[in-house]
Amino acid sequence: MNAQKMEIAGIPAMLYGTDSEKLYLFVHGRYSQKEEAEHFAQIASIKGFQVLSFDLPKHGERQHDAYPCTVQNGVHDLRSIYDFIQPQRKTLSLFACSLGAYFSLLAYKDFIFETCLFLSPILDMERLIQNMMSWANVHEDLLREKKEIPTSFGETLSWDYYTYVKNNPIVTWNSPTSILYGSNDNLTERHILDRFANKFNCTVEIMLDGEHYFHTEEQLKVLHQWMQNNTK
Question: What UniProt keywords are attached to this protein's entry (predicted)?
């Protein structure tokens, strides 16, 4: 399909589809890249949308940059992308996955999208970091003292990241939102999903035995159908 590489405020981006006043911003998750949007873009383009995706800090073409993938940098970049594209489009919607959904909840809390689709979203980062601290047997006082602590499961716990998250809870989200969630998601617990969905009146589809990362043949079929049904 049509795809145009570009750079927005120094951020590598990809625009999929033919010219349209309707556009989805696509925010990928951890360990992914902007090209992950192509499958969704194929579905969205049939319904008259273009899709704009971009690399988060330390992802895709930016993986060797010194600019770290902190929550502050993620929010900054998402706002830069929005500020660039919003004046050009009549209809703006959002697709966000995992960490990208969490960054979106912070960056776009004061905006209203026509439609918002969340795949395996991180909805309570404070809770997730506390869980990771428990997995790593790290107490809050130790993290405050050390500032950063690497873990055996590949994540680095950061005091600055943690305090930013604690000081910026998700209290506002006004976009109509549909969520696809796997019942075996090990990053966002079911009660966190239910609390968020109830508070912000979200539509939720739960895949029995689905995981945080949709990757098996069966999971990808469910994902494809969900995207088809909810892209509007």
Answer: Hydrolase
pLDDT of 139 > 90? The answer is yes
Whether 223 shows a pLDDT value over 90: the answer reads yes
Find the domain containing 149 and state its range: 125-169
pLDDT of residue 1: 83
Domain boundary among 136, 153, 169: 169
What's the CATH code of the domain at 82? Answer: 3.40.50.1820
182 and 84 inside one domain: yes
Same domain, 43 and 138: no
pLDDT average, residue stretch 169-183: 97
162 and 200 co-located in one domain: no
Summarize pLDDT for 14-28 with one digit per residue, the tens.
999 999 999 999 999
My answer on whether 50 and 107 are in the same domain is: yes
Q: Are residues 39 and 62 in the same domain?
A: yes
